[in-house]
Amino acid sequence: MSEASLGTAFISLLRRDLMLAYRHRAQMLNPLLFFVIVVSLFPLGLDPDPDLLRTIAPGVIWVAALLAAMLSLDSMFRSDFDDGSLEQLLLTPHPLPLLVLAKIVAHWLISGLPLLVLAPVLGMLLNLGSESLFPLLATLALGTPVLSLIGSIGVALTVGLRGGGVLLSLLILPLFIPVLIFAANAVGNAGAGMDITGQLAFLGSLLALAFALAPLATAAALRISLN
Amino acid sequence: MSEASLGTAFISLLRRDLMLAYRHRAQMLNPLLFFVIVVSLFPLGLDPDPDLLRTIAPGVIWVAALLAAMLSLDSMFRSDFDDGSLEQLLLTPHPLPLLVLAKIVAHWLISGLPLLVLAPVLGMLLNLGSESLFPLLATLALGTPVLSLIGSIGVALTVGLRGGGVLLSLLILPLFIPVLIFAANAVGNAGAGMDITGQLAFLGSLLALAFALAPLATAAALRISLN
Amino acid sequence: MSIIPNWLYQLSSPKNFYRFAGIASNWCGWIALFLLVVGLYYGLVNSPPDYQQGDSARIMYIHVPAAWMSMFVYMVMAGSAAVGMIWRIKASSAFANASAPVGAMFTALALATGMLWGKPMWGTYWVWDARLTSELILLFLYLGYMALQSAIDDRDTAARATAILALVGMVNITIIHYSVEWWNTLHQGATVTKLDKPSIHLSMLIPLLVMAMAFKFYYLSNALRRARCELLERERDKLWVRELVGENNSE
Amino acid sequence: MIMSDTPKPAEMNHSSNGSPWIEGVGLALSRNDRYIFTDLNFSLAAGQILQVEGHNGSGKTTMLRILCGLTLPSEGEIRWCGEDIRKNLAEYYAQLAYVGHAPGIKGELTPLENLELARSMSRPRKEADAEQVLERLQLPAYCDDVLCHNLSAGQRRRVALGRLLMLDARLWVLDEPFTALDPGGRKLVEELLSGHAQEGGMAVLTTHHVVNLEGCIVRGLQLGT
Amino acid sequence: MIMSDTPKPAEMNHSSNGSPWIEGVGLALSRNDRYIFTDLNFSLAAGQILQVEGHNGSGKTTMLRILCGLTLPSEGEIRWCGEDIRKNLAEYYAQLAYVGHAPGIKGELTPLENLELARSMSRPRKEADAEQVLERLQLPAYCDDVLCHNLSAGQRRRVALGRLLMLDARLWVLDEPFTALDPGGRKLVEELLSGHAQEGGMAVLTTHHVVNLEGCIVRGLQLGT
Ligand code: HEM
Ligand SMILES: Nc1ncnc2c1ncn2[C@@H]1O[C@H](COP(=O)(O)OP(=O)(O)OP(=O)(O)O)[C@@H](O)[C@H]1O
Ligand SMILES: Nc1ncnc2c1ncn2[C@@H]1O[C@H](COP(=O)(O)OP(=O)(O)OP(=O)(O)O)[C@@H](O)[C@H]1O
Ligand SMILES: [Mg+2]
Ligand SMILES: [Mg+2]
After folding, report:
1. Mind listing the pLDDT tens digit for each residue in E41-52?
2. pLDDT at residue D176 above 80?
3. Which of B118, B196, B104 is CA-nearest to residue B147?
4. Segment-wise mean pLDDT, segments of 10 residues, chain B, 227 residues
5. Hey, are the CB atoms on B227 and C156 less than 8 Å from each other?
6. For A208-220, b where at least 16 C-beta lie within 10 A, e where not — what string?
7. Using an 8 Å Cβ cutoff, are B83 and D104 in contact?
């Protein structure tokens, strides 16, 4: 009687979510295009003055990240809930928080990673100086996983719970704000030649905290939502 | 044999969508909070120089409006599609474009109107001069319905598809851009004391065009998506 | 069928279209090659350098035809998608689908050459200028068309859905063309396409037009070939395809 | 493929006495260029019930959706009183009530709200009262205030079927209406169906179960080979 | 409310011969302060099948979800081999396969991909091969490459039931497994069930239809009054 392996389950779930996002190879381009479009909205709406663009660049890129997270968070558990896959997930012999983590990782790979890949190009389009590039990447690398992690709690709480209240938005968006402020601030400061280890340390510890707690909270929330 | 009344159908559908939104208050607040966060991110994350803020205010508010519309559009037909209500909508004796219009109106009341209410406050946050306030409201009043109208076409095209959110934004953000350019331009020019009737006229005619054509296109797209 | 001429109706059957497209695509390919050689020779070697811009102006012979094509292809694509949707003609939809990647390629080419040209002319590769931006949006429209098509797995449904998208996107074409007049931009206004009196010297105009024709024939050749492939795949269970494949196998 | 086909004279009859009839002519459907069915013909007169039969995946649901004008057939057409339904969809839809696999009710509304909505979206039956309909469908009284997504599968289906009683439709199109219903519920639906037929209505339904429709003219349409 | 209850000595038997058994003790569930059922007891030994019966809304689905540990009962507990399942959920879930109202398969994956996924998420049956399972379930070959949301309702249900053959579960919990299946499919599932029971497996199922499980020990549990 072969045993159920946690590793296999984790990988399969991750692969499944990625496959659902990119059924066709061509679809892998979609998130990248999405970022380019969102970022190019700003120069279009604002006055396309290079200095101005440089100043707002960190904010713009971070808003794009936030939007990507929000757009895809919504569907993180919804379709699984609707078609009963979520029930099945709860009924595997594996620890639920780890399976949830696989879904969160998939979400980040879909919504966060492409942004990291594109950030240098987008930075260039927005005239961001090369001295700000590393800080931008660093904050994105530390910050976008936090968005996925924290977001998953909110989604899990609201997935089945209709009329559950204003909870979701009130719960996750305020938690997003510190990430945004610190990250955008760090990139801005780096452009002005200031030290940013403080901000990075803060983002890092936020990430560590979210990493440790969010999957547990999400798993608990899912069990409650499915009750 | 009592006849089917189009007016009753229109009103009931509108009422239903508003009622559903009201029961889902959390989801309803999402785009709104997102709007506020995007707008407040700039003063928070950037250096809060009043002049800078004033310059970027129209663009930021408009981009935020665009993104907020995007976020809420995603669910415009989705739940109706999933539970079969959309089929039923197609099978009523009333002209589908008009029923679609009821849903678009509901979407605008939920996602566009609150922005109009919030805009003055946000304008103040961003140091927008009082001379720009009316133009801002005017462009929002003319422009956000266009977003709902054009957006509905994209949603109708993608309603049954996976990867919905990102694909949707790929399809409709490019179509939103003319609105964005003209509206932000108008508010900016108004701040500089220039005449903006040209832009408002353009937005107005875009609204008229969208109002006339979008429900038809959306209805056609829905029939195709449900095929 | 009174609306469509009879020969066009016959052509629209997948089998006839496949035959026709095979021949036409070959011819167009050779014509395109010939025109390209001629155009490039006259453009790059035989025409005078611009009195203001020097040799960098020679990018024009690629940039301008590519930019024209980017819009032309879109219009053909939308038109043929619409025909495909309304009369349910597979060949027409297939041609629209085949046009999208070619159009996207021309758009990318116009953007790339424009950026290369912009560096010596404006001192920067990219400005967020109305025409440049709207051309970028055009690229997104093409990509959106292809994304939607690849996301729908039933081909009939895909054809009808993308047709609607293409038609709605037509609005943007107008905006691109008039962008230069509506906003004051860095980009040059209409010089060639002014109807009354082209403000361009004949020695530059001729190679430009030759290149434009070369691009058009290249487009036809490439798109017809792609449409052929798609038809063949879609009709793989039909008798004529089996016969065709059988012929080739027995050879 | 065709099991029952009405001869031409019968059609003449329908038209002469003014009661409606529906027919499918030369229907064929392909998905991804594979034919699910070809050359399907049927016709149905007032007071008759058509039972579409076939194994899983034989195309019954697809066929009902074509009948409703939701799916476009690759070939052929549906005719209502002799005229292609695409010519006058609105009039056709005023006569039609469809209950598909998906219930078409909103989970966030109560049963009462759902039925009221259904009534206002199409041509309502004059005497219809949502509360009475729910009672007729034997939905327990406590359900009136429960949101539909909290109801059991069978209760939800009853609400969906309630649409038939709210609307004044001549033609019922029902895709496996007995799904999730207990024996009492099934009996109820059978009664509804035969009542409808006796009043001169028409119904097209699919089901994998034996149905007992006494006193009705039930015709069969066999799909799949 | 209780139709069949195992006396204590029987339980002693189960434990002595080492094969597993499951029981529900004093179960009650309330929704919105209204009790759907109270004081429900049952027990099931290896090789037996429990058929939960009751009218629409009597709480069958709820009861199955409690059995799976998805829903928390207001009172009482489920015991696996005498121990509350909440004590060791992982071990219990390694023995469990659940097919509910919702199929639990992804519409955007093909049947093969869905079954492979199911296998890798829990304890797989050693000899299980997705392709063979699909064949066993009589899914036509062309379906292998079709995305599940394009399949017919019955075909989708077959894929969902395929999970039972991919996993090495002692306890099957099936909520109306016969829904949407044609007579051939129903027969197939009956065979699966009796095969499972003969190999010493257990099954709990609900259905509104007459099931023919020859050679199996079928017990009943009646819900609702
Ligand atoms: C990335 C940068 C650029 C883009 C996206 C771009 C795009 C376009 C487009 C779309 C057209 C066709 C307009 C129409 O027919 O309506 C065009 C035409 C043209 N472009 Fe550019 N362009 C770029 C850079 C440049 C530069 C740097 C120059 C040289 C100063 C230039 C010179 C021209 C000329 C002369 C025409 C022909 C105008 C006419 O007669 O219509 N472009 N370009
Ligand atoms: N895109 C597609 N590619 C290939 N086959 C498809 C596609 N979409 C649908 N099909 C096939 O079409 C048929 C649809 O059948 P339909 O849903 O009408 O069956 P049904 O008779 O209602 O079956 P059931 O009794 O299971 O409800 C299925 O056999 C399905 O596999
Ligand atoms: N929030 C709630 N408030 C009141 N009643 C509720 C609530 N949630 C569920 N119920 C009731 O609980 C019961 C749930 O029953 P369940 O779904 O288990 O029925 P079932 O026996 O599976 O029925 P079916 O045969 O229709 O599938 C229903 O009667 C439903 O009305
Ligand atoms: Mg079916
Ligand atoms: Mg149930």
Report:
1. 999 999 999 999
2. yes
3. B104
4. 77 92 74 82 73 83 89 87 93 95 95 90 85 91 96 93 79 88 86 85 92 96 92
5. yes
6. eebeeebbebbbb
7. yes
Q: List chain E domain ranges.
A: 106-168
Mutate to test the pocket of ligand 3, among E36, E74, E176, E222 (most ligand atoms within 8 A of CB): E36
Q: Closest Cα partner for A91 from D10, E100, D12? A: E100
Gyration radius (Cα) of chain A, Å: 19
Output the pTM of the full model: 0.90
Q: Where are the domains of chain C?
A: 20-250
Instruction: Tell whether E93 is within 8 A of chain A (Cβ).
Output: yes
Question: How far apart are the C-alpha atoms of A168 and A163, rounded to whole Å?
Answer: 11
- In angstroms and rounded to an integer, the radius of gyration of the C-alpha atoms of chain C is 20
Report if residue B52 sits inside a domain: yes
C130 lines ligand 1 (CB under 6 A): no
Q: Which atom of ligand 2 is nearest to the CA of D101?
A: 27
Tell me the pLDDT tens digit for each residue of A159-177: 865 544 455 666 677 778 8
Its domain, for residue A37, covers 6-225
- The answer to whether A185 contacts B52, with C-beta atoms less than 8 Å apart, is no
What does the block give as tokens for A27? 């679809």
- The dihedral sign for the CA sequence D176, D180, D186, D191: negative
CA gap D151, D145 in Å, rounded: 10
| Residue spans of alpha helices (H) in chain D | 8-17, 60-67, 89-94, 111-121, 130-136, 153-166, 183-198
| Alpha carbon distance D47, D10 (integer Å) | 14
Give the DSSP per-residue string, C45-58: IISPPBTTTBGGGG
- Looking at residues D97-126, what average pLDDT do you find? 92
B46/B118 Cα distance (integer angstroms) = 22
Cα(C37) to centroid of ligand 1, in Å? 23
Instruction: Please work out whether the CB of residue E31 comes within 6 Å of at least one atom of ligand 3.
Output: yes
B157, C175: Cβ pair inside 8 Å?
Answer: no
Distance in Å, CA C190 to ligand 1 centroid: 9
**Residue D171 neighbours by CB under 8 Å, 6+ apart:** D20, D22, D95, D96, D97, D201, D202, D203, D204
**CA B184 – CA B203 distance, rounded (Å):** 11
Chain A nearest C-alpha distance from B205 (Å):
20
Contact between B215 and B104 under an 8 Å Cβ cutoff? The reply is yes
- Answer yes or no: are the C-beta atoms of A100 and A223 closer than 8 Å: no
Contacts of A82 in chain E (CB under 8 A): 102
Nearest CA to ligand 3 atom 30: D151
A93 close to A27: Cβ distance less than 8 angstroms: no
φ and ψ at E62, to 5 degrees? -55, -45
Cα A24-C110-C29 angle, rounded to 5 deg:
75
Burial of C77 (0-12, 13-18, 19+ CB in 10 A): buried
Domain total in chain A: 1
* D2, D41 Cβ separation under 8 angstroms: yes
Q: Is residue B114 part of a domain?
A: yes
Residue among D142, D180, D208 whose CB faces E176 most closely: D180
Q: Which residues in chain A touch residue B52, judged by CB atoms under 8 angstroms apart? A: 52, 55
Angle in degrees, CA D184, D187, D192, rounded to 5: 125
Identity at E147, one-letter amino acid code: L
Cβ contact B44:A184 at 8 Å: yes
Element (H, E) at A88: helix A85-90
Alpha carbon distance B69, B110 (integer Å): 10
Crossing angle, helix B164-191 and helix A29-45, to 10 degrees? 10
Residues forming a β-bridge with E202: E171
